[in-house]
Structures are given as structure tokens and as C-alpha cells.
């Protein structure tokens, strides 16, 4: 192997690792609802966030989709699900410390979305 081939292999390997990491991130956070759920829970840390409250707070999400997304987020350790020992039984959700690591990404996307929305309004209208 020549030195040029060795130099070529390193960037390809790094690129592949980065693409796999990006794929994993999109797999965990992708879709229409997951980031919205995380932002909702973040903005309401001091409240008891049960299923009904979350569903009412996120426009357009169906009960079936909310169940799926909450399970996925819990499986990936981004939220916790706590079953309260009460009558009737209540379940609350909150963002985990690990889930809070996603917030800088979410804030960047949110800010970009605000700027983009304004740019499109000015361009089209």
C-alpha cells in the first residue's frame, strides 16, 4: 500500500463512522414528533406530564402515534415513564438527563426554523 492509499483510507473510514453516527441519530430522533415531544417535556419540567396532557399540548399527534413515540424515546433512554401508585393509576413522563443532551441540537433546529420561516415569508410574500 502506498502512502497515498493510506491517506485515502483514513478519511473514508472517518466518513463512514460519521455517516453511521448520523444514521443512528436520525433513527432515534427522526420523524415528525420525537423532537416536539422532547421540547414539550423540557418546557414543562415542573409539571406532571401525563399522556393526555402531552397529547393535548402537541397539535395533530394521534394517540396511537404518541404511544409509539413515547415508547421509542423511553427505549432510547431519552425520557422516563413513571407509574404512580394511585387510584386511578397515573403515568407521567419526563425528559432524562441523557435526553437533555439533545437540547442543543433541538435549539439549533428551532432557531434555524424561525429564520427559515421568515426568509420564505419575505421571498414569497
Description:
The protein has about 120 residues and is mainly alpha-helical. The protein has two domains: about 1-30; about 30-125, Orthogonal Bundle (Arc Repressor Mutant, subunit A). The protein is about 65% helix and about 10% strand. It has helices at about 5-30, 35-45, 50-55, 65-75, 105-125, and strands spanning about 80-85, 90-95. The chain has a two-stranded antiparallel sheet. A hairpin with a 5-residue loop joins strand 1 (about 80-85) and strand 2 (about 90-95). The longest helix has 27 residues, at about 5-30. The mean pLDDT is about 90.
Blueprint of the fold:
Layout: H1 3-29, H2 34-43, H3 51-57, H4 63-75, E1 79-84, E2 90-95, H5 103-124
Antiparallel strand pairs: 1-2
Descriptive terms for the model:
mainly alpha, globular, two-stranded antiparallel ribbon, 125 residues, 10% strand, 2 strands, 2 domains, Arc Repressor Mutant, subunit A, 5 helices
Radius of gyration (CA) equals 20 Å
Category from helices, strands and their pairing: mainly alpha
Distance between the termini: 58 Å
Along the chain, the helix and strand elements come as HHHHEEH
Query: How many E-type strands?
Result: 2
CATH architecture of the largest domain: Orthogonal Bundle
CATH topology of the largest domain: Arc Repressor Mutant, subunit A
| Order of adjacent strands in the largest pleated sheet | 1-2
Strand content: 5-15%
CATH superfamily of the largest domain: Winged helix-like DNA-binding domain superfamily/Winged helix DNA-binding domain
Poorly predicted tracts of residues: none
Number of domains: 2
Round the mean pLDDT to the nearest integer and report it. Answer: 91
The biggest sheet, with number of strands, parallel, antiparallel or mixed sense and barrel status, is: 2 strands, antiparallel
Number of helices: 5
Please give the CATH class of the largest domain: Mainly Alpha
- The best one-word shape is globular
Instruction: Give the % helix.
Output: 55-70%
Amino acid at each position: 500500500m502506498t502512502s497515498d492509499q493510506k491517506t485515502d483510507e483514513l478519511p473514508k473510514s472517518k466518513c463512514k463512522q460519521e455517516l453511521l453516527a448520523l444514521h443512528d441519530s436520525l433513527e432515534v430522533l427522526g420523524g415528525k414528533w420525537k423532537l416536539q415531544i422532547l421540547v414539550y417535556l423540557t418546557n414543562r419540567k415542573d409539571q406532571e406530564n401525563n399522556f393526555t396532557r402531552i397529547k393535548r399540548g402537541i397539535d395533530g399527534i394521534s394517540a396511537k402515534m404518541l404511544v409509539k413515540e413515547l415508547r421509542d424515546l423511553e427505549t432510547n433512554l431519552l425520557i422516563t415513564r413513571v407509574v404512580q401508585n394511585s387510584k386511578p393509576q397515573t403515568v407521567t413522563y419526563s425528559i432524562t438527563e441523557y435526553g437533555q443532551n439533545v437540547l442543543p441540537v433541538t435549539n439549533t433546529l428551532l432557531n434555524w426554523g424561525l429564520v427559515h420561516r421568515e426568509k420564505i415569508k419575505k421571498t414569497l410574500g
